[in-house]
Amino acid sequence: MKKLVLSAAVLLSTAAYADGEKIAVFTKNLTNPYFQVVRLGTESAAKQMNATVQHYVPTKPDSIPEQMSQVEDVVVKKPNAIVFIPVDPKAMVAGVNKINAANIPVVNVTDRAAGGKFVAFVGADDYSLGLETARFMLKAMGGKGNVVILEGVKASLTNIDRVRGFKKAIEENPGVKLVAEQPGNYQRLQALQVMENLMQSFPQIDGVLAANDAMATGAIEALDAANRKALVVGINGTKEAIDAIKAGKMLASGDYAGFQQGCLGTMVAIRELRKLPVPKEVVFPASVIHKGNYQPYDVMADQRACPKYEDLVK
Amino acid sequence: MNFALSRPGRFIGALTADLKTIGYRLAAALVICVILTIASDAFLTANNLLNVLRQASLLFLLASGLTLVILTAGLDLSVGANIGLSACIAASVMKLSGSALLGAACGVGTGLCIGVANGLLVALMRMPPFIATYGMLWVVHGITFWYMAGTTIYGFPAAFRALGSGYFLGVPIPVYLMFVFLTLGAFFAQRTTYGQEIYAIGANRESARLSGVPIARRLILVYTVSGAMAGLASLVFLARMNSAEGDIGEAFTLPAIAAVLIGGTSLFGGVGTVSGTLVGALILTLVLNGMNLLTLDASWQPLVTGIIVILAVFLDTLTRKRAEARK
Amino acid sequence: MNEIAMDRPSRPVSAVLARVPGVAWILGLLLIGFSFFSRDFLTGPNLHNIGLQSVILLILALPQTMIIMTEGCDIAAGAVLTLASVMLAWVLVHDGSLPLALAAAMATGLIFGLANGTLVALLKMPPFVVTLGTMGVAQGLALIVTDGQSIVVNNDALQAVYGGNLGGVPLPLLIGVAVYALSHGLLYHTRFGTYVFALGGNAEALKLAGVRANAYLVAVYVLGGLMAGLAALILTARMSSGHPTAAIGMEFDAIAAVVVGGTSFEHGKGWLFGTLLGVVAVGVLRNGLNLLTIPSSAQVACIGLLVIVALFIDGLKGKK
Asked: Which pLDDT tens digit goes with each residue over C181-233?
């Protein structure tokens, strides 16, 4: 009974936007705040441009078969366009092929898929983010000391590029020693436990390069609990990271611009439908958020509105 | 003395058998410690050992209630999801009301309610525990994801955070909680009628029913306790992590079950102890700690955990068969 | 040869109707509801999708039915399927022969099935524990072998299996039908099946009769492993790759589908067709919720509710 009433309500609510384009947005999971920010970006862009978005998220986080099933189901519904973050860049190529076969324009966001035809790719430059964020921290360290790297999900492209950036920055600073490199799987708890263990093995850790903010905050908790100090940087620019930067607990965070990615991805999809010119690829430049410049970033994501298209594309 | 007939006699007999099972396991834990001391310099430091105790305490708090459930030949697959919702509700209430105490009460209360729901499904609706708690797992996750909407709640008062990451007299606070609940749990299981009835239900439900044990009420009780303990564990977890997100806790379900099984409690019911679960939690945490110290890839963890579970239960099965053959 | 008179369930029509499980009513309701609220639901392409999406779960759930009928369970099935999928992909990439790859996948399943069966039947360990252990081993192996990465496969034979059809019916569906027919035949028309029914009811009596109950119990788990290997063919084809976490957790969906379909953990009662209904119900529910764009968190809750409501209905009907 509940399901029927729910379905009726959904149907009635979508009927109100009957003349707007329907954009299907695929994200990886319900729990990582990054994807929530992306989703908010897509919603804001759609509202500005008089279209609607429908979200598809696997019920089992990051489940490949489920996203595949959702792609198949959505293709049957024939949305006007799709904004797509693949759960796995290689395994989901088959899904993108299905979307292509149905002639639905699709924009690739955040994780670059390993194949398939896209209208455009909108993402951030993980390598530069890693590089700039690490450079910022190493400079604050005076170019010398012991650092550890907390990696994300091993197979993830974002992780591979960010860590490459970290390592390049370390290379540029011969006085800095990389004492350990451990995966935290982008998870807060894992990073905390890894950090705890690393602190046992290495009595002197001066800097922590975390591939994302969740792991950075995990490392900070571990350091706090053990009464040790180290400079910590992360990547993503979440509100939590910004609060930590304000409080002096985190040094800096690379801005992954999730909100803007959601905005621009949706804008490109809608523009493509309206036969407006679109870029083939937009990679946001790396910017590092720190104590001196955090103010413009310090806004709750659900209170933000998308910047103008022209501003995003330049 | 005829152990089979007299109740106190049976109790004493059970106790000595328990000490033996726990004894073997403690010995195993010690052996692991020795191996790790040799393998890694970082192991036998005060900091590391305290960390191990802290992690084991969290696992034990969760697994202690689960022990009671498994003693009745049941299962609770929803404990991980329970932690998630309880922590998120506790965090949210803490932020909204400003009171850590109120938040904590709501957290435990949420866990308790989930436990009651499980108990009702299993006891009154007669659903197989596997399926009932599996269904609840999804429902609880759904509620958590909807409520959290992909956000994170973070930043709690230092007094509350001490619950998870603080020390008292040099020992992490969760360890004190562990001993408190170890005592409570062992007392409850071994020395109260409730406890004895729980064992009886697990050993032979029909006989228990014929002896007048209120099966439904006891089943609801054990699932409620399991849920409440998950709620409590979620507070410790929240205090340690200083943040709550929708997906926390899910990673704890199978390790909690593994801890109970490694501790000697049988899935068939009627056999096992809360203290055994503590040792099981210790063994599991030690092994994982060792793997971390030796910087073994996290990919090996499920493999190693799996092998330990099989080994532990295999040894149990052997000793039980030998004990039966001797009778 | 001495044969104990085994109770095989006779199935007159009225007995079948009385056994219609709660899931059948729910499935009917879902089909009607989704057809009404979504114009895309009852279309050829969509039904085609539901079929393809459900086939892998069906192949896992059918042997799981028999395992549960013997009062056991196999929670390693998803991890074994994942490992088999990885092995299949690996062989395809390094050798290119599909039959060889399939053999490797089924051999993987066979080995784990043997391990599970031996530990359960000969060492008398609880199935949950044994398969919890082998689940960890399979999962760990999959992660280690692939180092967490997908193994991408570009193989025409594999795609032909997934995308091809025979007389309009997609090949994967035909594979599913074949597995169903095989399971049905094994369960209802062979001595093996008779013993599966009996093992759940009274294993002790079987042993006293001199029947090699243990061998059949091992065989049930071996069947589960082999089917996981077969399902790997479809899974790998679907993703054109082998991924180390692709099917983790799928066994719980399979077990839920089996129990919701009417098979009982405790009394050796089993109904293969009920499992099919359970699998289809899950597939229809997920598909319908996607078509109606129900928010994902509500979808998560609905899946749990499906399980609970189905068993609730059964409980009300006094079926236990």
From this structure: 999 999 999 988 888 888 776 666 666 665 677 888 899 999 999 999 999 99
* Angle at alpha carbon of residue C19, lines to C13 and C21, rounded to 5°: 135
Residues in CB range of B282: below 8 A, 6 or more apart? B29, B52, B56
- How crowded is the C-beta side of C270, counted as CA atoms within 13 Å? 32
Distance, in Å, from the CA atom of C320 to the CA atom of C314, rounded to the nearest integer, reads 8
Would you give per-residue pLDDT tens digits along chain B (327 residues)? 333 334 555 555 555 656 777 888 888 899 999 999 998 888 888 888 988 999 999 999 999 999 999 999 999 999 999 999 999 999 999 999 999 999 999 999 999 999 999 999 999 988 899 999 999 999 999 999 999 998 999 989 988 998 988 888 889 999 999 999 999 999 999 889 999 999 999 999 999 999 999 999 999 999 999 999 999 999 999 999 999 999 898 889 989 999 999 998 988 888 999 999 999 999 999 998 888 888 777 778 888 888 988 888 888 888 777 777 765
CATH class for the region spanning A13-123+258-283: alpha beta
The Cβ of residue C53 has, within 10 Å, a number of other Cβ atoms equal to 23
- Nearest-neighbour CA in chain A from C262: distance (Å): 23
* CB atoms A240 and B245 under 8 Å: no
- Check if B42 contacts A (Cβ < 8 Å): yes
Q: Which of C208, C260, C314, C210 is nearest to C61 (CA)?
A: C260
- H helices present in chain A, as ranges: 2-15, 33-48, 64-77, 93-101, 126-140, 157-172, 188-201, 213-225, 239-246, 258-273, 309-313
CA pair distance A96, A88, nearest whole angstrom: 11
Token pair of B152 as six digits: 């994170």
Phi, psi of C12 (to 5 degrees): -70, 160
Type of residue numbered B315: L
Asked if A6's CB is within 8 angstroms of C294's CB, the reply is yes
- Closest residue of chain B to A191, computed from CA coordinates: B241
CA-based nearest residue in chain A for residue B41: A201
User: For residue C156, with 0-12 CB atoms within 10 Å meaning exposed, 13-18 middle and 19 or more buried, which class applies?
Assistant: exposed
Q: What is the ipTM of this complex?
A: 0.86
Which chains have 3 or more CB–CB distances shorter than 8 Å to chain A?
B, C
- Mutate which of B37, B242, B289, B293 to disrupt the A interface (most A C-beta within 10 Å)? B242
pLDDT at residue A14 is higher than 50: no
CA A173 to chain CA centroid, nearest Å: 28
Is the Cβ pair C132, B321 closer than 8 Å? Answer: no
The domains of chain C, with CATH numbers, are: 48-316 (1.10.3470)
Q: Are strands C241-242 and C151-152 parallel, antiparallel or unpaired?
A: antiparallel
* Neighbors of chain B by Cβ distance (3+ pairs < 8 Å): A, C
Residues 147-166 of C with CB under 8 A from A: 147-150, 152
Question: Which residue ranges make up each domain of chain B?
Answer: 10-320
Nearest to B146 among C132, C139, C297 (CB): C297
In the numeric block, which tokens belong to residue B302? Answer: 């499920």
Which residue of chain A is at minimal alpha-carbon distance from B141? A59
291-320 in chain C: CB under 8 A from chain B: 295-308, 311-312, 315, 320
Q: What is the pLDDT of residue C171?
A: 93
CB contact under 8 A, B165 and A200: no
> pTM for the full model?
0.89
Q: Which CATH architecture has domain B10-320?
A: Orthogonal Bundle (1.10)
Q: What is the CATH number of domain A126-255?
A: 3.40.50.2300
β-pairing, A120-124 with A145-151? Answer: unpaired
Tell whether A94 lies on the interface with C, counting CB pairs under 8 A. yes
C123 in contact with chain B, both atoms CB, cutoff 8 A: yes
Task: Please calculate the CA angle B74-B75-B78 and round it to the nearest 5 degrees.
Answer: 145
Residue B155 to residue A243, Cβ atoms within 8 A: yes
**CB-CB under 8 Å, C302 with B309:** no
